[in-house]
TrEMBL record:
It comes from the Bacteria. PANTHER family: ACETYL-COA C-ACETYLTRANSFERASE, NON-SPECIFIC LIPID-TRANSFER PROTEIN-LIKE 2. This is Thiolase. It comes from Stutzerimonas chloritidismutans. Residues 236-377 form the Thiolase C-terminal domain. Coiled coil: none annotated.
Length: 382
């Protein structure tokens, strides 16, 4: 068990421009979400002395955030490992707070990807050994992994479709979700093929959106308006950068980050009430369910059948609708945090889980490259 367990807590969350926010820049959406999170925490802008940020729009994100918000932070970190950056920021902010390097840490993100361009693109540019093949990033890489996974384990497109249908079921309970309405297995199978075997319905949304959270030390958290959501543990793992360097296309570094994060948090699978997975593609959910230990390798397709991860199922996965149906503004990891906090606070409305004391979050960056797992919990979980 980590000495960091329960030492810090998330005390504020905020979002802005979820879906489409025409006329707003990435930094404006980030700023709106940040101000909302700070207000939610019962703090003022002047209280923030730590900044943790990664964006797909700014080469020097903490400089841009500090200037835009008018903050002179005593500690800052712009670690960018793709969409999993924000789960890593939870750990980094906890380390900084515990070391006394800052007293109130803002973790933030913003993107206007939909209204600025509207295409699914990635910062994971083709590497020198991939360029001759003219891949379309990131879809080509994930389709390659999906093809191998399906071949090796007999997983079908119908199994992948179960993930998309479950996500839509949750999105239909979330008024903030961008994609709503009926979605069937057949709808997914008949949607336009993008990169075989992944269809349009197997791919995440392209949206705008800003998100932020505020962390403080646990002793201070108890005096603020919202119920604290405690940091219980986190761990990251990286095995490759380019998909062609991935050791095994069917096994991600989540198989390393997950067990380490759960050990740090001192939790077992049976303790976890909510699983928030970075579902950039339907494949991700299957791979991560296996690599994080919720089912054996190769059995996730069977595991999700029959609505097992949908509303009313045995395991609550991506209760906001995920990147597939709720929001995906280029980097999705911040929104895993926001939904977990809402559930643990019991502020999730129609999709609120009966029991939501411990949430496992798993972020993914690059082409199945950067894997970061974090565990958050209520006071009861400690």
């Amino acid at each position: 068990m980590s000495t960091l367990r329960g030492k810090t807590a998330i005390v504020g969350i905020g979002s802005a421009g979820i879906g489409a926010a025409p006329g707003f820049s990435a930094i404006e959406l980030l700023g709106q979400a940040s101000l909302a999170a700070i207000a939610d925490a019962g703090l003022s802008l002047g209280d923030i002395d730590g900044i943790f940020a990664a964006t797909s729009s700014h080469a020097f994100p903490t400089l841009s955030v500090a200037e835009y918000l008018g903050i002179r932070p005593s500690f800052f970190d712009g670690t960018n490992v793709g969409g999993s950056s924000f789960e890593m920021h939870l750990l980094q902010a906890t380390l900084a707070l515990e070391a006394g390097l800052c007293n109130a840490a803002l973790i933030c993100y913003g993107s206007n990807q939909r209204t600025a361009g509207g295409r699914l693109v990635s910062m994971s540019e083709p590497q020198w050994h991939e360029t001759p093949y003219k891949p379309r990033h990131p879809i080509t890489a994930y389709a390659l992994a999906a093809s191998r996974y399906m071949h090796q384990y007999g997983v079908t497109r119908e199994d992948l479709a179960e993930v998309a249908v479950a996500a839509r079921g949750w999105a239909n309970l979330n008024p903030e979700a961008f994609a709503q309405g009926p979605l069937s297995i057949e709808d997914v199978l008949s949607s336009r093929m993008i990169s075989d075997p992944l269809s349009a319905a197997d791919c995440c949304l392209v949206t705008d959106g800003g998100g932020a959270c505020v962390m403080v030390r646990a002793d201070r958290a108890r005096d603020l308006p919202q119920s604290p959501v405690y940091f219980m543990g986190a761990a990251g793992a990286q095995w490759h950068r380019s998909i062609v360097a991935m050791p095994d296309l069917t096994v991600t570094a989540a198989s390393e980050s997950g067990p380490r994060a759960m050990a740090a948090a001192n939790v077992a699978h049976a303790d976890i009430d909510l699983v928030m997975l970075y579902d950039a593609f339907t494949l991700n959910t299957l791979l991560f369910l296996e690599d994080l230990g919720f089912c054996p390798k190769g059995e996730a397709g069977q595991f999700v059948r029959g609505g097992r991860i949908a509303p009313g199922g045995e395991l609550a996965v991506n209760t906001n609708g995920g990147g597939l149906s709720c929001v995906h503004p280029g980097m999705y990891g911040m929104f895993l945090i926001i939904e977990a906090v809402r559930q643990i606070r019991r502020q999730a409305g129609a999709r609120q889980l009966d029991k939501a004391d411990i949430a496992l979050l798993h972020g993914n960056g690059g082409t199945l490259s950067s894997q970061v797992t974090a565990v958050l919990g209520s006071a009861a979980a400690l």
